[in-house]
């Protein structure tokens, strides 16, 4: 009997385990656009995905975060009788509130709500831009007008807050504050703005400033901070509208900086590292591949985007797999680029909008196993295989209706979904939905 029990325990130990995972921040647990859960569907059922729940929500570009059985979402409610301007490029004061919602991940029931007054003065005033960052007992949120809040993740109580405009004299950029806060050890690192304070590290528990760094002449940008390791050093990457910068994350001191001007300050995508290279790029092929030095924090240019070399992503961050870069350019075409040279191997608008190009066309790429999940601006979820040879669509299903006005008069969903608990969580300007992606 002892041997039988031991054998059974050993078998359970060695058996593959399908595990659940959280999506606690922008681009997932490791900020690398990778969903590591197993036991996920190979294709979508012809009858559609199983809906777990659907809950009303307000306006917003901010994607949800999922952690500890809770869903955290930012949205915006307009003041009574107020409407957004018909021309989204103008920036008159628009009264309303920003909200942080906490929902039960199993059924969508509201656990708590945190709300505060916030008048918008930004282009495309359709709500917050930043995915909440969940770190244990705390959740950090950043609104479109620069309101940073640390909330109790269980109860929603305010722990501390900052107003970037008031506290740092940070200018509100054309499209507001859109850089997702990053937790690093005991620090919360944010893109703030203002003189000497483009990047600021706060004590994540108290909000006390630990260090501040960098200034810009024109645009702060919208790109989110990320940390890499190279030459035996942890390096904090900050892409402003003027340059890609590497800082010491402990002190904020500058390691290196390489110029890269962004079109209209549209430094949006998060920098990507692969082995000893870093790629960053923005609209109209403002793209750059750098080679990192092996012996000290330093970098040199390999190629610069131009003509048919490289790509210029707008809203979505590209993905590097092996020797190839996959991403959506500013005309809405999913592209494959040979990383070493910048050579563009293929492009297709099929997964994003169908057959037509679209200004700032958007699809968010998340890798799961040997395939990708693409959430498109049309509200579709796509399973696809991406190789240097071609784009191969495996399956497609509708999650949400696109509601937000965009260029060319089209309606879009420009909100990154969360993948957790073998489900997809996605939102538009009307609701948030949860669909099961578990293999039956």
CATH class: Mainly Beta
Q: What do we call the CATH homologous superfamily? A: YVTN repeat-like/Quinoprotein amine dehydrogenase
Structural class: mainly beta
Q: CA-to-CA gap between the ends? A: 34 Å
The order of strands across the largest sheet is 1-34-33-32
CATH topology annotation: Methylamine Dehydrogenase, Chain H
Q: How helical, in percent, are the residues?
A: under 10%
Strand content range: 35-45%
**Count of individual domains:** 1
Largest sheet: 4 strands, antiparallel
List unreliable stretches of 5+ residues.
1-19
SSE topology sketch:
Elements: H1 2-14, E1 51-56, E2 65-67, E3 70-78, E4 96-104, E5 110-117, E6 133-135, E7 138-142, E8 147-152, E9 158-163, H2 164-168, E10 182-184, E11 187-191, E12 199-203, E13 209-213, E14 226-230, E15 233-239, E16 243-247, E17 254-259, E18 272-274, E19 277-282, E20 286-292, E21 299-304, E22 319-321, E23 324-328, E24 334-338, E25 344-348, E26 363-368, E27 371-376, E28 380-386, E29 391-398, E30 404-405, E31 411-412, E32 418-420, E33 423-427, E34 431-436
Antiparallel strand pairs: 1-34, 2-3, 3-4, 4-5, 6-7, 7-8, 8-9, 10-11, 11-12, 12-13, 14-15, 15-16, 16-17, 18-19, 19-20, 20-21, 22-23, 23-24, 24-25, 26-27, 27-28, 28-29, 30-31, 32-33, 33-34
């Amino acid at each position: 009997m002892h041997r039988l029990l031991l054998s059974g325990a050993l078998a359970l130990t060695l058996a593959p385990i399908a595990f659940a995972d959280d999506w606690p921040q922008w681009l997932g647990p490791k900020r690398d656009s990778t969903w590591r859960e197993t036991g996920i569907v190979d294709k979508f059922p012809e009858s559609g995905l199983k809906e777990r729940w659907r809950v009303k929500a307000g306006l917003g570009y901010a994607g949800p975060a999922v952690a500890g059985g809770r869903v955290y979402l930012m949205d915006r409610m307009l003041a009574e009788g107020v409407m957004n301007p018909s021309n989204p490029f103008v920036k008159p004061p628009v009264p309303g509130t920003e909200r942080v919602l906490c929902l039960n991940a199993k059924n969508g029931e509201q656990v708590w709500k945190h709300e505060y007054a916030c008048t918008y003065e930004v282009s495309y005033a359709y709500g917050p831009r930043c995915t909440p960052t969940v770190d244990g007992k705390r959740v950090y949120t950043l609104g479109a007008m620069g309101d940073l809040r640390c909330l109790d993740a269980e109860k929603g109580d305010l722990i501390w807050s900052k107003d970037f405009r008031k506290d740092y004299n940070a200018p509100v950029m054309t499209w507001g504050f859109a850089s997702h806060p990053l937790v690093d050890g005991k620090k919360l690192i944010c893109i703030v703005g203002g003189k000497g304070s483009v990047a600021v590290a706060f004590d994540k528990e108290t909000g006390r400033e630990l260090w501040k760094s960098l200034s810009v002449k024109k645009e702060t940008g919208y790109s989110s901070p990320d940390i890499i390791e190279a030459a035996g050093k942890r390096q904090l990457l900050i892409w402003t509208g003027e340059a890609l910068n590497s800082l010491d994350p402990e002190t904020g001191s500058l390691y290196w900086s390489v110029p890269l001007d962004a079109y209209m300050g549209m430094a949006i995508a998060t920098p990507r590292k692969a082995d000893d290279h870093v790629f960053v790029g923005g609209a109209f092929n403002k793209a750059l591949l750098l080679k990192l030095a092996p012996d000290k924090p330093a970098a040199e240019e390999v190629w610069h985007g131009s003509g048919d070399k490289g790509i210029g992503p707008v809203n979505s961050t590209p993905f590097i797999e092996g020797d190839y870069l996959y991403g959506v350019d500013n005309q809405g075409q999913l592209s494959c680029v040979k990383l070493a040279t910048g050579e563009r191997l293929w492009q297709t608008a099929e997964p994003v909008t169908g057959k037509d190009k679209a200004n700032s066309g958007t699809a968010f790429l998340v890798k799961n196993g040997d395939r990708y999940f693409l959430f498109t601006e049309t509200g579709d979820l796509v399973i696809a295989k991406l190789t240097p040879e071609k784009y191969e669509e495996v399956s497609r299903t509708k999650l949400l209706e696109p509601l937000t006005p965009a260029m060319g008069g089209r309606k879009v969903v420009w909100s990154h979904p969360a993948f957790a608990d073998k489900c997809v969580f996605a939102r538009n300007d009307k609701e948030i939905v949860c669909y099961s992606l578990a293999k039956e």
